[in-house]
């Protein structure tokens, strides 16, 4: 047994493919569900419309935490399998939903599915990759997931335009769930022993309790807590894009097909960009990419708030994707740098708890502001919050990549 992407290429590549299916489960909703809320269920209040994002964000955030703890206790593969089993009823609920309550239930299950499966594929790739190429590993993982989000958003937009909002778009999600479960049962192997191998190469240190891991990752350790707040704000942005952007574009008179293009463009650039930014963080370090990425996202959101044409929105979506790509794999890599292998899975779980809590906070914040002052005002507020988050990283976070610092990160000592 050895550490490294090349030494574990077959299993690593399989996990990349599995995470693409995880992303596809999320992508089935991005174009169609806001339109379904407005056109089929006739929801008018933005806050109520965003309840599905709130339900998803709360359950995914909580499940992320337990996924890390359970991965340490029971192993990675059982958690992955549980996540895929929970995914199976999601597209069926969306196809048959007679009321919005069914959609909320589907998004609760989707949040649990995403928390268990995406968290576990992240942990398993960190286990396999070892310390030197963590940025590349996270870039490949997140690229696979978000390219699949984009491709599925585009495909469901096309299917909805040709065949209606239901059932055709959600049949893709059903096929993803079946294939993901099959691969996880028959092909994915346990990786927890790789984490034990890396832990043996570190200085010996006492095990941390769950409470100590939570406190360190959330508040007291500068790099871990800075990453947690930046991740939360990043997904606050994504919750805004998921829930309100299609409505903003629709009120400007764009067709369903064009809304599908815009809904796909941002995660496509985000996903593909991580193939570049993940390895760059191994070369340049983590801090500067995270800081710059948050500021680029803020600028892109400001352009979206001010614009009113497809061309400008498309350019801003590309810019938003670039900024998110700079941040997303780099934050995960920084968590892997600082957290000791003995408690790293739990630290990833806590980080993802805060990060995906951003969906819920974004749904509440954006929905309330949109109800009172309109969608554009909500986008302006989130742009300001994102810029402030970037400044927090610039002032508080230290560089975490061991090759850049020449020492072990503080959290591993």
From TrEMBL:
Topological type in the membrane: Multi-pass membrane protein
Signal peptide boundaries: none
Record Pfam families: MFS_1
Annotated ranges, domain Major facilitator superfamily (MFS) profile: 8-401
Molecular-function GO terms, alphabetical: transmembrane transporter activity
Main localization, broad class: membrane
Record key words, sorted: Cell membrane, Membrane, Transmembrane, Transmembrane helix, Transport
Organism superkingdom: Bacteria
Subcellular compartments: Cell membrane
Transmembrane segments: 7-26, 46-67, 79-103, 143-161, 168-188, 240-268, 289-307, 313-332, 379-398
GO cellular component: plasma membrane
InterPro entries recorded: MFS, MFS_dom, MFS_trans_sf, MFS_Transporters, Sugar_transporter_CS
PANTHER family for this protein: INTEGRAL MEMBRANE TRANSPORT PROTEIN, RESISTANCE PROTEIN MDTM, PUTATIVE-RELATED-RELATED
Record protein name field: MFS transporter
């Amino acid at each position: 047994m050895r550490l490294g992407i090349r030494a574990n290429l077959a299993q690593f590549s399989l996990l990349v493919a599995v995470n693409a299916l995880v992303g596809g489960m999320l992508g089935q909703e991005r174009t169609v569900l806001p339109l379904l809320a407005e056109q089929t269920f006739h929801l008018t209040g933005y806050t109520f419309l965003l309840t599905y994002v709130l339900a998803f964000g709360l359950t995914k955030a909580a499940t992320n935490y337990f996924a890390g703890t359970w991965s340490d206790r029971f192993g990675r593969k059982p958690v992955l399998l549980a996540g895929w089993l929970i995914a199976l009823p999601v597209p069926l609920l969306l196809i048959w939903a007679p009321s919005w309550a069914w959609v909320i239930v589907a998004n609760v299950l989707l949040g649990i599915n995403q928390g268990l499966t995406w968290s576990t594929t992240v942990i398993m790739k960190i286990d396999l990759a070892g310390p030197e190429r963590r940025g590349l590993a996270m870039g490949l993982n997140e690229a696979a997931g978000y390219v699949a989000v984009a491709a599925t958003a585009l495909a469901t937009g096309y299917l909805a335009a040709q065949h209606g909002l239901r059932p055709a778009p959600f049949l893709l999600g059903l096929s993803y769930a079946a294939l993901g479960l099959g691969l996880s049962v028959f092909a994915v192997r346990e990786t927890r022993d790789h984490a034990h191998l890396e832990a043996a190469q570190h200085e010996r240190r006492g095990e941390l309790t769950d409470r100590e891991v939570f406190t360190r990752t959330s508040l007291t350790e500068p790099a871990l807590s800075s990453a947690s707040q930046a991740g939360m704000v990043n997904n606050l942005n994504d919750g805004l894009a998921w829930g309100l952007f299609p409505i903003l574009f629709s009120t400007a008179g764009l067709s369903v097909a064009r809304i599908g293009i815009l809904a796909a463009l941002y995660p496509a650039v985000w996903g593909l960009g991580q193939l570049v930014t993940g390895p760059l963080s191994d070369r340049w370090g983590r801090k500067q990419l995270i800081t710059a990425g948050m500021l680029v996202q803020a600028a892109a959101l400001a352009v979206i708030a001010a614009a009113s044409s497809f061309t400008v929105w498309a350019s801003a979506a590309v810019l938003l994707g670039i900024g998110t790509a700079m941040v997303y794999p780099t934050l995960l890599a920084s968590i892997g740098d600082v957290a000791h292998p003995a408690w790293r899975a739990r630290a990833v779980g806590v980080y993802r708890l805060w990060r995906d809590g951003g969906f819920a906070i974004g749904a509440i914040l954006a929905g309330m502001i949109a109800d009172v002052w309109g969608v554009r005002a909500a986008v302006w507020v989130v742009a300001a919050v994102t810029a402030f988050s970037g400044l927090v990283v610039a002032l508080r976070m230290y560089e975490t990549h061991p090759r850049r610092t020449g020492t072990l990160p503080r959290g591993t000592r």
